[in-house]
Amino acid sequence: MSDFARSPINSSGPIYTHTSGRTPQLEAISRLLKVSVKPFLWTWSKTWFLPWPTGLVDHLGRVLARDADVETAAVQLPNCSAQLYSPKNLDSDRLVLYFHGGAFLVGGNHLHRQMISRFSTELATRVLAVGYRKMPRHSLLAAMDDCLDAYRYALSQGISPDRIVFMGDSAGGYLALVAAMQTKSAGLPMPAAIVAMSPLTDWDHTTKVEAVTAGQCAVLPRSAVAAFTRAVRRYGDGSVELISPSQSELTGLPPTLIQAGSREMLYPDAVAVAERLAQHDVSCELQTWDTNVHVFQAAASIAPEAAHAVRSAVAFIDRIVHRVQRREAS
Asked: Which domain covers residue 245, as residue numbers?
């Protein structure tokens, strides 16, 4: 694999790093996803209005063991629960607020625990994984409120905002960006940084479904994108504003890292929001890998590309928010 850096559009754009080359491990994962998850999502896209047992999907993650060197504890937020991951190698007063993916429908306690515990260990930092309310029982607005409540909780615990990072994947990457936007609107102090992996950033799906990457994606069929939006609107209460970060005012947001596969459905969304951040004078890094696996970072224990992406995210956070707690001189 080789790296090169450039700006996608011009010298004022985000710092852009692409890692080329694909390993057999990630290619095997891609083939498996194409014959399992992708057909399942195609079926869901045609019958999304039926009473799918979305709450059960999270339990599939029980087969994914979290890092044995990470302990978890339940935290109760105003309207949802959360899990606090604490690594045994803890050497930092930082806190990562993690917003999981899953199309605002699935995930929570189990599907993401392996990836979250890995980030906690490699960062030597506590991670608060927010179990935000999900569709179909709740609207997208409820999920957005829960993410902001999690930040308020962290601040109430005496954690300085310049020690807090917003992080998420896919739908959770969207929530990480929107939570920062809402933080600004609420007059709260900004967190130190944002990390968004394969984020949804534009509710106008025209660009991404017409892009060549839509046909290359190993996980998301084109039909799922439109069905997903219809579900969000149906389960909304009429007051849900479908905010598109890549089309919004982003001035004042903290340094942001965007990661994505260069052959996945949401690649255009990743590029668009990175360029939007740079246009609004936000320090932004866009890192892409030559893969069609959505949120490939979850395969860090198997695929070198995924492990590389995790290390890159850790390095970004370490650079913005120093790892070891600073102690005042006596």
From this structure: 2-320
